[in-house]
Specification:
Length: 256
């Protein structure tokens, strides 16, 4: 029973983690213009072996899955992902950008069970980041338009989680706070998980960097390098955060 509980929880964790590696970088200038980039990458390959093992557990079978079983799951995963990473072209993204935002880079990576992409823009004011949307559509099962970004975890609002507020003497930054599901509070130790699952979860990396030419008054970043505040998390640090810390998210105050 303990083995089944661990496998079930680990399966939930793998599904919930979405993008395994995410890096978001925002650089502000004194006039509140600047650049923002988002890079993400995910490798679902280890999920094939884990899912095959999970199926055997559910069927009451013992031992490790055969290569044939793993290959079958891999093909099922590939079929389910096919066509869903439908990132717009540079021209399509540029056409939908709000006034004051310019596309600098855009690239989609779709290599079977390995996928990701990057987006970099320049903006004339940080408020424009909240207006930026990457519209992606693909055919749903019922023939209706379905959001590919929602299906794959690619954000339609890449920088919607960051908020800047000009308070006159200071500039306040906040964002990316969320309430973790109850299942996360009882997440298993990596030592208790199957090797392929533990190896995948160890790759989870979330990095947010904010560079501004202002004096930092207060912040909850994990580290600071000159004018850059860095929030950097992996599986262990994410699991060690309290619900209050998770809800608080990122926080910083700058003196202008």
């Amino acid at each position: 029973m303990r083995r089944m509980a661990l496998v079930g929880t680990a399966c939930l964790l793998l599904v919930m983690t979405g993008c395994i590696e995410i890096e978001e970088v925002v650089t502000l200038e004194k006039d509140f213009s600047g650049t923002a980039s988002l890079d993400f990458a995910m490798d679902m390959e280890p999920f094939a072996a884990f899912t095959a093992q999970f199926k055997r557990e559910m069927e009451g079978k013992e031992g490790k899955p055969t290569q044939e079983e793993i290959d079958l799951v891999r093909q099922e995963l590939l079929a389910s992902q096919k066509g869903s990473m439908n990132m717009p072209t540079k021209e399509e993204i540029a056409k939908d950008l709000p006034p004051g935002v310019k596309l600098l880079e855009s690239k989609a990576i779709d290599e079977g069970l390995k996928f990701g992409g990057n987006l970099k823009v320049a903006f004339d004011h940080f408020d424009k980041l909240q207006q930026l949307e990457v519209k992606q559509k693909t055919a749903g099962e019922a023939g209706e338009a379905e959001s590919a970004s929602a299906k794959m975890g690619f954000p339609e609002k890449p920088f919607g989680g960051l908020h800047f507020k000009d308070e006159g003497a200071t500039l306040v930054m906040s964002g990316m706070g969320f309430a973790p599901p109850a299942e996360m509070s009882s997440a298993p130790s990596l030592d208790d998980l199957p090797p392929e699952v533990a190896a995948t979860l160890k790759k989870i990396k979330l990095v947010i960097k904010v560079t501004a030419p202002f004096e930092v008054v207060e912040h909850n970043a994990t580290r600071k390098e000159d004018k850059t505040l860095i929030w950097e998390y992996d599986y262990d640090t994410l699991m060690s955060r309290t619900p209050e810390q998770m809800q608080e998210g990122l926080r910083a105050r700058f003196k202008k």
